[in-house]
What does this fold into?
Amino acid sequence: MSLLGIGSAKIDLILDKEAYMPGEPVHGQFYIKGGTIDQRLKRIDCDLVAIDNTDGSEKVIDSKTILSSASILSDEMNQISFAFQLPESVRASTDRLTYRFDTRLAFNEGASSRDQDEIKIV
It folds into this structure.
């Protein structure tokens, strides 16, 4: 069932705050909750995505990958520190331009878990 994503571990990125300036570091925690079975973690991918709300287009600004071979036990809660340096070139958020972190938790076997977190650039 975990191959279909049923009972798989889940990931949630919790950031220290919601608004940032260009070039500022972003800090937070990945919280990983084990599913109904033990699973071996392969990697965590986190992309900073810019969304143009006028046409719905999305562009990946930068990515961070954490490779791992850790096991996530069923019903276990794990925490991994998150740090990301915003580029100096990011423009301020507007009604037309918004930003989010897209996070994917990949396993050796099983469907990946996903999370999205909006941030504001001021």
Summary: The radius of gyration is 15 Å. Residues 2-119 form a domain with the Immunoglobulin-like fold (CATH 2.60.40.640). The chain has one domain: 2-119. The beta strands are 10-15, 19-20, 25-33, 39-52, 57-67, 71-72, 77-85, 97-107, 113-121.
